[in-house]
Each structure stands twice: as structure tokens, then as C-alpha cells.
């Protein structure tokens, strides 16, 4: 920046002032060039940003148009379904009574099923008791069979002894039973 009254008269300037002013001009031109380069870089960056924004806007617009079309189709389908539902006949009293009868029948069947399940459980308990009783009787029967077989053996032995004793009693010179021959 130049002070007021710095340049006085055009022909009396000194060489030093001219060189100093030339230095200032060169420095300012250098700064101006740097600013121009930054401005060009910034303009390129802004241009790229604008291009990206335009591309994004176009993509977003296309998405919005597609979504609007889908919404319109959905609304059309909804209206068609509403019309179809309103055109459907209502459930008559007869159908409702028939449904109630079927529901009551199902409830009765379910009740019968539960009764049968309870009956089966009771019969299974009785069966388990009878099986236990059968096992007890079978064990008792096996024990009695063993005793019977032993009694038959003893009876056979007793018959043999009695037959020997009779035979010995029938022959007078025979040794008594149990004596060595």
C-alpha cells in the first residue's frame, strides 16, 4: 500500500523507488497468479460437484418416478381388491348356523376323545394290575409245580418202600426191610 504523497512528480523518481515498486508489482502478480490457480482449481471442483449433484438429482428423480408408479399401481390394486371384496356375497345366516353346528360337532368330538383317552388310561391301570396279579400267580404256580414234583417223587419212593415191605412180609424167610441182603 502506498502512502499519500508518496509519488511526487514524474521525472524526479529515483532508481530505488522504481525497483521497489517493480518488486511490489512482481509480488502482487505472483499472488494474483496463485489466486487465479486456486480459482481455477475451485471452479473445476465446483464443476465436478455440480455434475455429481445433477447426476444424483437425475437418479433421485428416476427413483421418485419409479416409486410414484409403484404407489399408483398399489393404489389401483387396493381399489380393485376393495371393489372385489364389496362385490363378494356376505355370509348368510344359513352359513353361519352351519358353521356353528360344525363347531359344536367338533367340540362334542373333542369331548368324546378326551373321555376315551381317560377310559383308556383307566383300562391301562387295570391291565397293569392284572399283569402284576398274573406274575404273582405264575410264580405261585411254579412253586406249586415244584412242590408237586417233589411230592410225587416222595410218593413214588414211599410206594417202592411199601411194596418192598409187603414183599418182605409175604416171604417168611426174607430179611426185614432195610437189612442187608
Question: Can you describe this structure?
Answer:
- The chain is mainly α and 181 residues long.
- Helix content is 83%, strand content 0%.
- The protein contains two helices and no strands.
- The radius of gyration is 64 Å and the shape is elongated.
- The termini are far apart.
Order of helices and strands: HH
> What is the residue-mean pLDDT, rounded to a whole number?
85
Number of DSSP helices? 2
Strand content: under 5%
N/C terminus separation: 170 Å
Task: Show unreliable segments.
Answer: none
The percent of residues in helical segments reads over 70%
- The assembly state of the depicted protein chains is single chain
**Radius of gyration, taken over Cα atoms and rounded to an integer in Å:** 64 Å
The chain-level structural class is: mainly alpha
Strand element count: 0
Major sheet summary line = none
Give the CA-based shape.
Answer: elongated
